[in-house]
Amino acid sequence: DELLLSSANNISCKYAKSVWDTQATTTAVGATNRTISYWCFSPGRAIQELIRQNVRCIILTSGTLYPFEPLEAELNLKFPITLRNPHVINADQLNLSVIPRGPDGVKLNGTYSVRETPAYRNSLGLLLVQLAQVVPAGLLIFFPSYAFMSQCIEFWKNSDTYEKLSRFKQIFIEPREKNQFNKIFNEYRSIACSESSVGAILFSVMRGRVSEGLDLADNTGRGVAILGLPYAPIHDPRVLLKMAYLDEQCVKFKSKFNKDQSQKTLT
User: Fold this and answer.
1) E strand or H helix at 180, and its extent?
2) Cα 253 to the chain's mean position, in Å?
3) Confidence label for 69 from pLDDT (cuts 50, 70 and 90)
4) Where are the extended beta strands (E) located within 50-113?
5) Overall domain count for the chain
6) Judgement on whether residues 66 and 137 belong to the same structural domain of the protein
7) Do 107 and 210 fall into the same domain?
8) Residue 167 and residue 163: Cα distance in Å, rounded?
9) pLDDT of 6 above 60
10) Are residues 64 and 99 in the same domain?
11) Do both 120 and 63 map to the same domain?
């Protein structure tokens, strides 16, 4: 990115270099390529570049900015005016729960090695069948990846779980193809909001199209189930270096960086 690199002539701890071997391309069969990457882990570098261009006002808006103090520390910028609006619904209208075990008693441990097991996938399916019976209108199910979603759906179709789900709600699946998404989502919304229907389930992927930027108000999202977390690969050089950078900043800014900041790095 040109904006980030325009200040890169003075290398600091906010930048990190990484070198690793990659598989050869088809033009060099049997050879090993060495890749050198130069990454910026501090968004404050870009913000300071904007300030040097005499930007008069910077406004950040999002539903996930709070807490503000770690954000200000990472951006290296104080915001004298902040606004934190209340949620559109009251606290007593929302139930947030962590479900540690399925209806059959199987521990719902979503780590990579466990989620490959039939017992885990079967227990997830049993849980979703129960949710489909009690959640009215639209029910959103978020998977960590398209691959895991496809594997679970295939597993449930080979048992009676998928058929049981379809008894209680019409099932829709978020497509990988962008040109098919609007059609699928509009059909889901129509069924979910119809008073004459039993409701609908939309199988979706975290960081996918459903999870970003859509209005899922009222009957389109009466219930949401998140099946595990889409953690970044822990051995990815970018993740390791970002974690090391945040460790340095924790020492520098003490309490300004917290667990929430670490979670954002991994997800």
Assistant:
1) helix 178-193
2) 27
3) confident
4) none
5) 2
6) no
7) yes
8) 7
9) no
10) no
11) no
Domain interval for residue 176: 95-226
Q: What pLDDT was estimated at residue 55? A: 87
The pLDDT score that the predictor gives to residue 261 is 58
> 203-222 pLDDT, tens per residue?
999 988 898 778 888 999 99
- Residue 171 CA, chain-centre distance (Å), reads 22
Strand partners, 15: 40
pLDDT of residue 125: 97
Question: Does residue 90 form part of some domain?
Answer: no
- Do 54 and 173 share a domain, yes or no? no
Q: In what order do the strands lie in the sheet with 170-173?
A: 170-173, 200-205, 138-143, 223-226
Residues 6+ apart with CB under 8 A from 132: 139, 165, 168, 169, 199, 201
CATH of the domain at 197: 3.40.50
Q: What six digits make up the tokens of 166?
A: 């379809």
Residue 147 placed within a domain: yes
Beta strands in the chain (DSSP E): 15-23, 32-40, 138-143, 170-173, 200-205, 223-226
Question: Do 139 and 200 contact (CB within 8 A), yes or no?
Answer: yes
- In this prediction, residue 265 carries a pLDDT of 56
Who's near 243: CB < 8 A, 6+ residues apart?
262, 265
Which residue has better confidence, 33 or 145?
145
| Dihedral (CA of 128, 233, 43, 76) sign | positive
- Res. 264: pLDDT tops 90: no
> Are the C-beta atoms of residues 233 and 239 closer than 8 Å to each other?
yes
| Element of type H or E holding 5 | helix 2-5
197 and 102, same structural domain?
yes
pLDDT band at 22 (very low <50, low <70, confident <90, very high): low
